Amino acid sequence: MTSIDDFWAVIPAGGSGTRLWPLSRRSSPKFLHDLTGTGQSLLRATWERLVPLVEDRVLVVTGAAHEDAVRGQLPMLRRDDVVAEPLPRDSMPAIGLAAAILERRDPGAILGAFHADHVISDLDAFRAAVAEAIAVARTGDLVTIGIEPTHPATGFGYIKLGDRLDVPGAPSAHRVDVFVEKPDAATAESYVRSGEYRWNAGMFVVGATTLLELLAETHPELAANLRIIASDPRRLHDLWPSLSKIAIDHAVAEPAAAAGRVAVVPASFGWNDIGDFSSLAEVLDQAHGTPTLRVITGVDDVVSIDSSGLVAADSGRAVAIVGLDDVIVIDTADALLVTTKERAQDVKKVVDELQQRGRSDLT
Amino acid sequence: MTSIDDFWAVIPAGGSGTRLWPLSRRSSPKFLHDLTGTGQSLLRATWERLVPLVEDRVLVVTGAAHEDAVRGQLPMLRRDDVVAEPLPRDSMPAIGLAAAILERRDPGAILGAFHADHVISDLDAFRAAVAEAIAVARTGDLVTIGIEPTHPATGFGYIKLGDRLDVPGAPSAHRVDVFVEKPDAATAESYVRSGEYRWNAGMFVVGATTLLELLAETHPELAANLRIIASDPRRLHDLWPSLSKIAIDHAVAEPAAAAGRVAVVPASFGWNDIGDFSSLAEVLDQAHGTPTLRVITGVDDVVSIDSSGLVAADSGRAVAIVGLDDVIVIDTADALLVTTKERAQDVKKVVDELQQRGRSDLT
After folding, report:
1. Is pTM beyond 0.80 here?
2. What's residue B1's pLDDT?
3. Which residue in chain B is spatially nearest to A304 when comparing CA positions?
4. Domains of chain A by range and CATH?
5. Which chain B residue has the Cα nearest residue A333?
6. Predicted complex ipTM
């Protein structure tokens, strides 16, 4: 596959999350970490995955606090390829500003927005899906990539497939019937059984101008302000704080789907958003086989007696685990987490509690 | 209860054990620690428990490596009240040397040997049992205190009661029929059901000379060498390494029981040898009621979400536990243990493994 001249990658590198605490912190969110032991951070792996499609046409949108770390991990990016948000404003302002910048650089630009902290295992399948999405985006639709569910997950939104489209170069594409929120277990089960639903992985491919026009239909002031900032970057600091904090799904994708203007390319390429330590364990097990106890870091410091699960021994201390199955032990210099795969989602409660206690130094 | 002029307390303070790792180490065994949160180490609590019976008639026998720590915790002891073993030689040489020293100080001395690392909750009942044991010891018997079992433990030896004795001042005393080794679960169950068995807590009350005479019957050279050392402490370093490494149970108590010369005072005063973290949890729960999660140290550093068990946060780091029941988390400056109450006995395997890896700095 060769690169596509008017296709640009937009990488929103934000969203600290709290369910990978204490590895991931506000000061050092998960996209900066090599969680999967590949030797690359998730951000760097995202860039590597996209570069065959876009060569040097990459924009990373990140928080001002992480700009230096992003530039450090991606030293090939030019000055203008990293956009630093003064404050977090969710995905719509981030991707919308990228679109406004890109339509000035290249009036026909198609952008593909891909989060900096997802893991994808089959790169050929990923790039083939993106190529189909680009073909559909050229027809003026907003296009998403819908991941074939491998289990009835309750942690993701779902996309309901509509009619098959007839776009040359996009044989798999369908109209999107509707985006649905994270379902309960029974609903998720019925979605997966029906075969008509795909996971919403937050991947969007769309003409830069198309995206801003769709946004202007629902949030005209936001679209206008993003274009003002793109035309005069000195306005970033005064305008940004006033922008609505809203996700691209709510601002654009859902209303556009209701108007019949969203397409989906169904795909299955081994996708994981590493939402928590249980997801991380799953990714690692798929890549390397299921061991008794998976050690992310510090393997020489770990003693395991009859235990299974996931361990990070990041503090240099000895970590001994005796007789626990599916346990998660994350040992860092200033904080220790002990939980189970089953309860991995509740790690966010620890972060809430620490913040309530005034221990934001630890979060 | 007033003190008894010819009664001496002997406190063997040895036996590092490995099942309370990483709190207890060879360099700092459990008797030096305030494991139960009373503000006193187990050694100090043992001394406090005995002092009403013996005033200043106390001998502590400990390893040379721990002599300074013992003197630091018991500053009232005189120079000659602490005996430092050059090498660990198990309980018979330790208690036997104490007996040899005491018979020189006080030819009619009765000694009571009580481990430095046990917990007793009902002190009046304890002292009453000791008084009975002293009365029987004056008749020339070796006397043990037999703890009424509260459950069919498989971690202790048992004492089978023989006929009731008729000794003034010792209405509860029985002859010992036989000492039995740690039983399997079914045997333990039958012992407890029968009502004829007591736990062997390793508490012995006996005339100093009687003990050495009993020892001389089975191990004459050992008895002779102990008396040589007592008469000339300068011989300690050359003779000690050659002494047999043997427990008082095997060297004296079992053979003497077979000869009908051992008595037992049955008692129930809330005894626990804190053999592992599960025992420690039990002691703490009995003293303070069962909490959701018991925190031994560092309560301000612990965040518990839906968890129960035992935690020590000894490193100053935050310790977060999410969704684990009956978990044990022991966090120290250089080592972390995560296990369960059920598997607490297997902590010794961690210590074995660390030693095999050459990490004796951690054990």
Report:
1. yes
2. 57
3. B350
4. 7-272 (3.90.550.10), 290-362 (no CATH)
5. B317
6. 0.87
